[in-house]
Specification:
Blueprint lengths: L1 E6 L2 H13 L4 E2 L3 H5 L3 H4 L2 E5 L4 H9 L33 H25 L8 H21 L9
Antiparallel strand pairs: 1-3, 2-3
């Protein structure tokens, strides 16, 4: 492999690599990983390499400066279409169900040590696994939802 160019920016090296590969020349950036973590410039820049037999053709392809043709003076860009306006979304009042589930689950986890102590006092065994804690949280959340549905908060007229 022969180094045909050195770069400061990885994006420029990758751009030229893709240009060579589109012309059928296999190219390689050996410093790609060190460039990704920021050490390429310290080590020697980012190298673009090709095989020995493709060196001349690769330099010729990279040496050709392909410029875009300038626009004529009478060019008028097409008018931009405005994006369709979506109707404004109606604000929904907070129904509090997600809040009730969260606080019910949290209360279930807070009550867990008390339940553990009661069970141990009466001769049971407790196995606190992660799955058990999740089930306890879900059960507490369901209880919180039931309490919220049964006793909804009434708006405070004085506020």
């Amino acid at each position: 492999m022969v180094t045909i160019r050195r770069y400061i920016l990885l994006t420029q090296a990758e751009l030229d690599k893709s240009l060579l590969e589109s012309e059928g020349i296999r190219a390689f950036i050996p410093d790609e990983n060190s460039a990704a973590i920021g050490y390429a410039n310290v080590l020697s820049g980012i190298r673009l390499q090709v095989s020995d037999e493709d060196t001349g053709r690769a330099q010729q392809i990279l040496g050709e400066e392909k410029e875009a043709t300038p626009l004529s003076d009478d060019f008028v860009p097409p008018p931009e279409e405005a994006p369709p306006e979506e109707p404004p979304k109606k604000p929904t009042p907070d129904d509090g169900f997600s809040n009730a589930f969260f606080w019910g689950g949290t209360a279930g986890l807070a009550v867990f040590p008390v339940l553990s102590l009661v069970t141990l006092v009466f001769g049971g065994l407790i196995f606190a696994t992660f799955g058990g804690l999740i089930l306890l949280f879900i059960a507490g959340g369901i209880v919180g939802l039931l309490v919220h549905a049964t006793f909804p908060k009434r708006p405070n007229p004085g506020a």
